[in-house]
Amino acid sequence: MSVADSNKLDTTASTPLKYKRVLLKLSGEMLMGNREAGLDGQMVRMVCSQVAEIKKLNAQVALVVGGGNICRGLTAAANGMDRVGADFMGMLATVINTLALQDYLENLNYYTRVMSAIEMPKVCEPFIRRRAVRHLEKGRIVIFAGGTGNPYFTTDTAAALRAAEIEADVLLKGTKVDGVYDSDPLKNPNAVMYEELGYLEILKKSLRVMDATAASLCLENHIPIIVFNLYKQDNLRNIVLGNKVGTLVS
Fold this sequence. Notes:
Low-confidence stretches: 8-12
Structural class: alpha/beta
Distance between the termini: 40 Å
Strand order of the largest sheet: 4-3-5-2-1-6-10-11-9
Number of helices: 9
Strand content: 15-25%
Number of domains: 1
Order of helices and strands: HEHEHHEEHEHEEEEHHEHE
Largest sheet: 9 strands, mixed
Helix content: 25-40%
Shape: globular
CATH topology: Carbamate kinase
CATH architecture: 3-Layer(aba) Sandwich
């Protein structure tokens, strides 16, 4: 199947969707699998296959990925590096991850565009809001790189910002666990998962959903957040169809 045929198939899909335009946020760590650092091809393929499933339903898809599998600004700063420089290193790491996702998605015959907050004309497009929306309307998968382009802001904040700018119906945060818990479920077998939360609850209870800036942006712009297990096949598909998956923050 050619790229053109694949995208033609997507645009004729008629399955009703609860969320038509989605932004998927995933950490860089999710792409490294069991490695200590870098990219695990199997994990990248897993993510891209799930994205392909919702493209087949005619969803408009944008992605934001972190760079923690390569370089995390906060960690580098904690080890004595200048915070601003460390954060820029983290932003550059996100570009590497986005290019990997782009390659795998195009191997699946989907048009993609990488748009970066840090201009790299030989590698990707600069982020321009209207152009990003137009790419989505044309059925392209848009992958945002470079965070917000500013130090001291996380990729969670970048995801919330881009979700607001493209007027996404929902911000999806893919994780290794089923949702938001009252304690770490990987350490506490008795941890209880929340099915629904309010934006202010995640701030008051200091739940590790997203940082305060990201949560506030979603609150102000009425963007629901769904935290879910991206490792479980069909979770992403079920969410856009309106099935209950993970924890809803609204």
